[in-house]
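User: Here's a structure from my thesis project, written as structure tokens. My advisor, Dr. K., wants to see whether a designed sequence matches the one we expressed. Can you design one independently, without my sequence as a hint?
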């Protein structure tokens, strides 16, 4: 290697090193500007403090949607964008996360940086009411550096906090996940008879004298218990809110006590439409869920 080439390479290395040092210095100066340095005065404190038992309204406003949930008696209901019983589990999870979010540190107090952390109109604003009055309001922004971290800001403050114990999906759910997806539910031990009907063919599964039987046939206890576990909690995969015309062909019906679950073909015959005699709502379920319920006699009798 000639001397000129060596000198050139050394010069390039020096230039690159100087550029790198300049970038580090610029980054340091930016983070040390007033209102942008990381401080920890609120570390470990809750982002908001609420009393879950007193909360009676929850508003969740995302850039393209709004969900309003209200408590009526002991149960939660959707009020906006539609009136429907809410998923009690998902509402409880939202309230629990609201309580459990802890401030790790304040990353910025500069309002011009709110968009950077998506704690402005691009974020999700959550407003919590207790006993009819607003108790707290915060904006959940983009995810933080770890799985359970998010950036957040109190609506009343310019401070952007990095909070732990947060998951934006808890609040940013598809509408169907805020709705109660229960088609049928009953404690398994209270189910004592099930009538299956497939067109002109019918058979009954009954519990008598501590034994499950189908007519005079003994049953496969494991298969029956698996079926009963599925039947005790039947949930929808989708809600069908538009009128179905003409009404699709019914392929099966399962009767449990005074409730009938009717299974209808969908247009593509892959999924099933389901309607319960206890509700006017139509649902759609996937084949794997239907297969857990639509048992033939041969599937349940002892081999």
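Assistant: Designed independently from the structure alone:
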């Amino acid at each position: 290697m000639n001397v000129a080439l060596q000198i050139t390479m050394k010069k390039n290395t020096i230039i690159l090193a100087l550029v790198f040092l300049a970038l580090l210095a610029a980054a340091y100066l930016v983070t040390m500007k007033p209102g942008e340095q990381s401080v920890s005065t609120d570390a470990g404190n809750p982002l908001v403090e609420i009393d879950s038992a007193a909360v009676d309204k929850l508003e969740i406003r995302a850039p393209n949607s709004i969900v309003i949930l209200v408590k009526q008696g002991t149960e939660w209901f959707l009020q906006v964008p539609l009136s429907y019983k809410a998923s009690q589990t998902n509402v409880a999870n939202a309230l629990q996360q609201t309580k459990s979010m802890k401030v790790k540190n304040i990353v910025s107090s500069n309002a011009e940086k709110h968009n950077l952390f998506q704690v402005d109109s691009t974020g999700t604003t959550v407003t919590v009411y207790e006993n009819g009055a607003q108790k707290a309001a915060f904006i959940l922004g983009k995810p933080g550096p770890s799985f359970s971290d998010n950036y957040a800001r109190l609506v009343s403050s310019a401070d952007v906090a990095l909070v732990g114990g947060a998951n934006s999906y808890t609040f940013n759910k598809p509408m169907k996940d805020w709705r109660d997806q229960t088609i049928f539910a009953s404690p398994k031990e209270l189910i004592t008879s099930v009538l299956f009907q497939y067109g002109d063919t019918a058979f009954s599964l009954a519990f008598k004298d501590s034994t499950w039987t189908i007519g005079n046939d003994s049953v496969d206890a494991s298969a029956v218990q698996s079926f009963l576990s599925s039947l005790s909690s039947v949930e929808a995969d989708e809600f069908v809110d538009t009128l179905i015309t003409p009404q699709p062909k019914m392929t099966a019906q399962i009767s449990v006590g005074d409730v009938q679950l009717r299974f209808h073909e969908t247009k593509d015959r892959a999924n099933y439409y389901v309607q319960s005699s206890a509700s006017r709502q139509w649902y759609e379920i996937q084949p794997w869920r239907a297969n857990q319920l639509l048992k033939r006699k041969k599937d349940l009798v002892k081999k």
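When you compare it with your expressed construct, this may help: Helices lie at 3-31, 88-100, 175-178, 221-231, 287-291, 297-300.
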